[in-house]
Specification:
The protein has about 220 residues and is an alpha+beta fold. The strands form two sheets. A six-stranded antiparallel sheet has the order 1-10-3-8-6-5. The chain is globular, with a radius of gyration of 16 Å. The model has no long low-confidence stretch (mean pLDDT about 90).
Amino acid sequence: MTAALASEFVARDAQSLALVPGTVVLDEIAGARGPWSAVVRAGDVLTLVDLHGNQAVDTLIYSAADRAVRYDAAATVSAQRGLFLSTGSVLRANDGSALMTIVGDEVGNHDTVGGACSQESNTLRYGHHTKHQHACVENFLVEGAAWGLGKRDMVSNINFFMNVPVDADGTLGIVDGLSAPGKRLALRAEVDALVLVSNCPQINNPCNGFDPTEVRMIVTREEQS
């Protein structure tokens, strides 16, 4: 059933699948376990479609005009006075400015504190036998290099669709996601924004249901009257 639903959302035309209507200016698949990136122009809306459900999408955002201006988890959490992201959340940069705003969300809870997996963290958490496994940090470095970004440009990322509950004592958990096949999230760019994604390859915890899958990325532009 899940595979059939995923095929349905792959086959649907992008305009009907976009969470915010408009002219489709980009429609791509972020491959399972792989990276993806694009510049989303100010005013355009990026819809992320979780094709199979329960797929974590690790995301970094930079100002396309000045990549020293980049997503800042602390500024975002502080400004909205909450750890989790959903409709209305403004994704803020290290100078406090708005980079993107969540304008539509069919899941309702997205993580700001779980971070990105790496070969080193895999080894620490799951054992040395996982050292060879590809991870989000490597995806970010490979994709970021195409935009002139390196390791020093990496910051704490967002994990869209990932479910990371925080207990009263501050303990974090990584548990089964809240998403499902075809669930969508829409981000409106407040500036020309470089969006860098690692479609998480993690197979050692439930963040991807132990089976990383594809995500569809659709950018729409408001139609001019």
